[in-house]
Amino acid sequence: MTLTALDKQLLAMIADLHDIPAGAYNIRKDGGAVARQSSANIEILPKTDKPGIDIIVKPGTKQEAVHIPVIMTKTGLHDLVYNTFDIGEGADVLVVAGCGIHNSGQEKTQHDGIHEIIVRRGGKLRYVEKHFGQGDGGKRVLNPQTIITVEEGAVAELELIQIKGVDNTIRLTRAEVKKHGLLKMVEKLLTHNEQNAESSIVITLVGEDSAAQVISRAVAQDSSKQVFKASLIGQNRSRGHVECDAIIMDQAKITSVPELHAEHAEAELTHEAAIGKIAGDQLLKMMSLGLTEQEAIETILSGFLR
Fold first, then answer.
1. What is the tens place of the pLDDT at every residue in 179-214?
2. What are phi and psi of 250, to 5 degrees?
């Protein structure tokens, strides 16, 4: 595959890639796979009944990564893909996903990714997904869905980031955590102009001594709108915490709805949420260091979303 300058720019934004990666990878462009490679321990197979791939990580695989970025460069495309991840027992791997859209035409370009993830017993997964949009044309839409099962003694860490430039997004995440399992989710979101973003998370703690932590950092600028919903359901002796912090600017609107549902006497569930503007004293402190007001705002927001 020969990458164009635009391809490389999008891949760098969403996956920190500057060329074809080593190891296992699947690069999808404009609705089809353009490059794919398996490794000795990570097999990538195309689905036979619908668009998408199966990613199978052998048990015990350690310190390996798989990249599965999606880029879209044409207007008027609607890409729907189903990906299944099977992380073997005792494995410890990194998955780098993400989607970048460049839309310079007049029609809407949309990518919907439906991911099913199973982290087998004792396995560990770090999953990083970044979304980015650019171009002066029609709308850029990204709708990811993730269904994840964390089996006994397994650990899953999800980092979900929307950098900028996505006009509409609806993110759905459903998770089930079993005995001694742990799920950590960090969601970072920036919206501006007239953009809309919704995120709905439901985590069910089914196993004894299972645990989950959800951290949300959001910035809404201009006239953008955000809705964040996170629900923890404790069905066994378990621990869970939801933390939502948001900065609101201009005429933006933010709704944050953390929910706790304890269905067992030893379920310990907590949440905290805060929405507010940039503190004036923080802004003045940055400007006293020689920054303009705009530079100070950008520095504060960059640190908040880091």
1. 999 999 999 999 999 999 999 999 999 999 999 999
2. 55, -125
Q: Let me know: does 136 contact 104? Beta carbons within 8 Å.
A: yes
Contact present, 74 and 30 (Cβ < 8 Å):
yes
Q: What is d(CA 304, CA 306) in angstroms, rounded to the nearest whole number?
A: 6
pTM (two decimals): 0.94
pLDDT in tens, 44-81: 999 999 999 999 999 999 999 999 999 999 999 999 99
Measured CA to CA in angstroms, residue 99 lies from 13, 27, 84, 195 at distances of 9, 10, 17, 17
Distance CA 115, CA 54 (A): 10
**What's the alpha-carbon Rg for the chain, to the nearest Å?**
20
Q: Using CA atoms, how far apart are residues 218 and 203, in angstroms rounded to an integer? A: 20
Q: Where are the beta strands (DSSP E) in 58-209?
A: 62-67, 70-72, 78-87, 92-96, 99-102, 109-119, 124-134, 140-150, 155-164, 168-177, 182-191, 196-205
Reading the block at residue 139, the tokens are: 């709308």
